[in-house]
Each structure stands twice: as C-alpha cells, then as structure tokens.
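Progress against Task 2.4 (sequence-to-structure conversion) is shown through the following example record, which the project officer requested during the mid-term review.
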Amino acid sequence: MSCAPGRPAHQASPHRLSPSWVLVSCLLCSGCARLPDLKYLKEPLHAPTIPRVVDGQGVLSEKAASALLARRLGHAKVDAGYLAGLEEAATGRPLIAGNQVTLLFDGPMTIAAMMVAVSQARDSINLETYLFDQDPLGMQFADLLIAKQKEGVQVSIIYDCVGTLGTPQAFFDRMQEAGIRLLPFQPVSPHHKLLGWRINNRDHRKILVVDGRVAFTGGVNITASYSRSSLFRSTRKAKAGVVGWRDTHLQIEGPAVAALQWMFLDNWTSQQAGALPARDYFPTLAPAGDKVVRVLGSQPGSHHEIFKAYFVAIQGARTSIHIASAYFVPDAQISKALQQAARRGVDVKLILPSVSDNWLTSQGSHSFYQAMLDAGVRIYELKTSVLHAKTAVIDGVWSTVGSTNLDTRSFLHNKEVNVVVLGDAFGLEMEDAFQADLKGSKEITRETWKRRPYLQRFKEWCARLTSYWL
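Structure tokens generated for the chain above:
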C-alpha cells in the first residue's frame, strides 16, 4: 500500500505538494496532451428540445421532464432549458432530478457534516481524497473510520500518492490493519507500473459516499488546514498569522448519490486493485428534494466533460459570470470565452486568492490579469481567508461546485468531479455566498495593475511558460 517506499514523514503542504523534482518528473515522464478544440461548440449543437432527465425510477418522459424543468427554471431570465440541452449534447450526461443539495461553506462545517454521516453509517463508506494528512484532524477522521470498520461497516479509501507524499506510511498501515481497504493512486515510485507510470496524472477528486445514500463532494481535503473557520460571513477579524481556508463543499441526498458512488467504484476498478467486498452500494433512492443536478467527472484521456460544461455555460452567459477559483491558469479557450463575455456586456467577476500556497501557480495566474482587465473582466483578491474554493454561478441559474480548478492541470491531467445544479433558488444561495466573499476582497483595477513593477512582469512571463504543468 506504499506510495513511495522510504518517503519522509514531514508534513504535507495545505494543498498541492509540488516540489521541484516532481515538476521535473512531470516534464520528463509525460507527453504534452492537449485539450480538445471546442470550435464546434461555438456553432449551434444538435441539442435535444427537452434535456434528458432521470430520477430514481429511470428516465422521465419528455412531458414530465418539460414540466419539471418549467417548475425549477421558470423564473430564470435566460433560456436555461436550452442551455441545459446544449450542455447535455456537449457532455453526454443527463440531468438527475429529486435531490437535496446543501451548501457547506468552509472546513469546519464540511468536516462536521461528513463526520456525522460517517458516524451514522451502517453498511459502507467510500472515501476518495487528494490529501489525507496525519495531523489532529486527519487522526480524528481516521479514528472514526477505524471505529466504523470494527463495527462491521466496510470502509474503502482511494488516496492520491502525490497529495499524501508527506503522510507517513504508518498512518495508512494502521487503517489497513483494522480492515479498511486502501488504494494508493499512482504511486510516486515507477516500480509500481513501469509501462503505465504517469506521475503527472493525479486523482484530485474529493468524494465521500455513505451507505450509498448520502454523498459529499467539493474542494475540502482531510487536513488540519480546514479545522479553522474561514471568517465567511463573519464580523470577526482575522488574528495575525491565523487565517482559515475558504472552501465550498456539497452534501447530496437523492438519486444523484448513485452517480458519485459509480464514479468511486469505477475508479477503484480502473486501478485493478481487486474487487471490493460485496455491499449494498446502490440502494433504491427515493426523491429527497427538488434540485436538478448533473454529475460530471473528468480524467486523463476522457471526454473532458467538465471543461466542455464550463465552456458552454460561459459562452451562453447573458447577464453574469461569477467565479471563485483557487488556481486560475486557464487554457486559451476558456480565457478567450471569459473575455468575449465581458466585451458583450456580461458582468464577469473573478474572486482569486491574494495569497496562494503555490507561488508558481500564483504568478501564472497573475499573467492573465492584464488581458482580462483590458476586456472588462473585474478581478478581486480574497483577503480574509486562504481561498481554495472552485465554484461558479452563471446567470443566477447555472451553478457548479467541485474539485476542478480553472487550469489546464485540472481539465487535462487530473481526475476531477463537479456537480452542476440548475435553478434560480440554488443560484441565489451561490450568489449570496459570492457577494459575501466580495466584501472580504480587494478589487484589482486596470490602472493599478498596469503600474506593477517590471520584475513582477518578468516573474509572470516565466510562470506562464510552465502553465501547462501548473
């Protein structure tokens, strides 16, 4: 189960553990794959008149789907049904009706909700994560998982081997000895798989499915960085040197849980790690709420569903595009789509981090500021917390929360997961959260950015050269 025999037991960084030798390995051991050319998405697609909608009982008739979407999207100021059809044509994924979706705004709220669900598990717990640190929070979570395994609940975990590079192997050995099934994703050591070793391809997903009935996904990892509140919607002032992480996660109940369960099990199978113990992974799921969602997954060599969904949504935006992104190093197509949207009068606002845990990525992000500002995109940097969220709300009716950053790494090299939620009620919740983050952010103006030092410009230029691997 080792990711890298003899690896050090030092503490992992809060997000991406990307030492220079890992970057060099990426350059040497991976070819330059490319994102698909989306020119065809700029022309009208042969979208279905009524988007395909499924629920716990199967595919809804066109009449039932039309009535459902009218109820959920009827107050939207845009043709959300048409855009949903375009998204289906681009991604091939149906809408899933009958879900309860709860927004979880920061680490303490998310971890608390996940621990409640885990403590109530009766059959199975499937966890997929990028980071799982041996720190007070990680130990507490691991202890709870071990306790549930001893009660007879089957616990299975997929963890990324770069994300957990600083986690001692003994941490995972203790869970394995308790009977927990472990799958280390893409071990750093090439001895694991000489012909298929792809260190640049990482599992960046965060998925927790309990008893096949409740699921969590978003940007939150299992690490003590999330044990501090982010000051989201708080009147408190941050203490010097003590800043929480601002992230967003979803708790989902209803038929969409099966899609996330399938994503976990498909990943397990693809790694040829042996069959999981027989459990009731797919119980019958009755409607649990009124939310209509689309569950999207991407991985290297896939159809790039998340990339296409973002592109279609941005391209079709008519009133607003509000994005919060921890790592903003977009490919040329997403970059151009955002600029074109701003030029046609769409209110495009980006909330990006003022301080990043990855210096090179931060400089790469800065290299896009001038073009965005020149096009009319408004850029804000969050000051009150460390931004780690990956969210967007477009036209107040198309919302997404997931693990995907707006960068080439996420779209092309990582396993990622995003959930799209349609409807103005959920969109309003997302907008409220976005506006709250704006209050804790400082706007970067075009005039101010033009006056930045030439040394800063040189750093941006150097980082831009490596943007493919950031």
